[in-house]
Amino acid sequence: MKRLFSRLCGMALAATLLVSALPVSGARAAGIQVTLNDQPVAFSDAQPLMRDNRTFVPFRAIFESMGATVSWDDPSRTVTAKRGDRTVKLTIGRKACTVDRAGSDRSFSTDAAPFIEGGRTYVPVRFAAQALGAAVGWDNNTQTVLIVDTEKMMQTEFPNQFQAITAMTQFQNSVAPKAARSLSGAIGATLTYHTAMGDIPVVINGTITGAESLDAAQFTAKLQTDRSAIEQAIAVNEGANVIDENVDALLKKLQNLTVDGIVSRVDGKLYLKSDFLTEVGIAQGKWAMKSLDNTASLTAVKNGDAIDFVCAEAQKLTPTPGSSTAQVREVVRRLSDQSATTPIDGSGNYSLHFTADAYTSVDMKLIPNQSLTIIRTASPYDAETAPMTTLTTVQTKSGASISYERNASAYNAAVRIDLTNGAATTAPAVRPAS
User: Fold this and answer.
1) What are phi and psi of 160, to 5 degrees?
2) Which residues contact 74 (CB under 8 A, 6 or more apart)?
3) I want to staple 300 with a disulfide (CB 3.0 to 4.6 A). Which of 59, 96, 176, 427 is the partner?
4) Residues near 272 by Cβ (< 8 Å), separated by ≥ 6?
5) What radius of gyration do the chain's Cα atoms show?
6) Which helix (H) or strand (E) holds 130?
7) 145: closest CA among 23, 21, 38, 20?
8) What gap in Å lies between CA 250 and CA 252, rounded to an integer?
9) Could you tell me which of 287, 266, 228 has the C-alpha nearest to residue 434?
10) Is 127 exposed, middle or buried (0-12, 13-18, 19+ CB in 10 A)?
11) Within 10 A of 351 (CB to CB), how many other CB atoms are there?
């Protein structure tokens, strides 16, 4: 019975609520290699090792190989690395760390804390390299950490070639919350299920309220679903007698649904909680979590340039040993002004088109002082197939509109959320309390 209900009502929701597996403890791994721009990094007196499925490296070797100046403060047990306008600080035994970029001090939480072993200080290599503007990957076949210095590549190989992305980031900064503010808006959705007896639309409407800061957005959505269309779909495909008391209880749960959520820019994760999630295996009262993987859009970058956005796009790669530098270079090229679809003429009206991966294209359009539109279109089959998903965000100074469309063989989904910024309020949580 729950299989039927999930097919009719929960397909789109369940696909976005897969909870990431927690890391398990691992032993020291011999033979781990590290490359920087496809060249091996030498470790003279202490080698990389693995703990809890995370690779750690001696801090001095990795930071100095990237051209940073490093120091150690014994009283606070803190490692500091400085390169250009970046200063990175990590403390032994603590997951909390800071990255200061051009005077913009931000706090982050790593998934693994630095430690001391054999008289050497080890730091998590992925965070350490990313904090200095690099893309980091892992090749399991060769047990190699692949690091490409994206920021340095932008500065040396593509100097002054990111006016469009920089202008878009600056607009994003101008509309970002300087202090916590309230959010309110409306949600509308139509799920059209393709059945043997024809298409059956299910209409969902609701409201959303919450708060937003630079670090997170927290919200509560109250949704009402027209259950008559679901009942019709069940009757057409399975027979009216299928709607027993168990199915009726599920329909009532969906008819008036509350969803609590947190979009954490600190953790890079989406957290959701709802009674409905018990239907996709989440325990009552528990939060579901999905990594956002640096996806979707320009985040609030306080110093207002292209570097963080380009680095985030490069990080989405699956790098190949010996070719990782060329792969990142292609990403950087696509995001440079060479990919602008309108002239970089100083007018401030910018349009940029690039392919994020083999299946996804992105179109971004800036109208100065008015709006920034980002459209991500994914076609995961072939060039002859209609786009499967389209995500459109339009940001203005007063709020934002988000539209999501998905075309699948079993159903189509169309969702729209309109949000309006409000007065100052209590800062949102960056992660669930429990």
Assistant:
1) 60, 35
2) none
3) 176
4) 17, 259, 260, 261, 287, 288, 289, 290
5) 24
6) helix 125-131
7) 38
8) 5
9) 287
10) buried
11) 16
- The H-or-E segment that residue 90 falls in is strand 86-91
Sheet holding 33-36, edge to edge: 39-40, 33-36, 144-148, 135-139
Neighbouring-strand partners of residue 165:
none
Going residue by residue through the chain, which has 434 residues, state the pLDDT in tens, using 9 for 90 and above: 333 333 333 333 333 332 222 233 333 345 899 999 999 999 988 899 988 888 999 999 999 999 999 999 999 999 999 999 899 999 999 988 888 887 777 777 777 899 999 889 999 999 899 989 999 999 999 999 999 999 999 999 999 999 888 888 888 888 888 899 999 999 999 988 887 777 888 899 999 999 999 888 999 999 998 888 777 777 776 776 777 777 777 777 778 889 999 998 777 789 999 988 887 788 888 999 988 754 333 343 444 567 888 888 888 888 999 999 999 999 999 899 887 766 656 667 888 888 877 788 889 999 988 999 999 998 876 545 567 899 999 999 999 999 999 988 888 999 999 999 999 899 999 999 87
Tokens of 348: 């401030």
Return the axis-axis angle of helices 150-157 and 324-335, rounded to nearest 10°: 60
Half-sphere exposure (Cβ direction) of 356: Cα atoms closer than 13 Å: 24
289 beta partners = 271
pTM of the model: 0.75
Torsion of CA 193, 374, 17, 207, to 10 degrees: -70
> Among residues 310, 304, 375, which one has the least CA distance to residue 336?
310
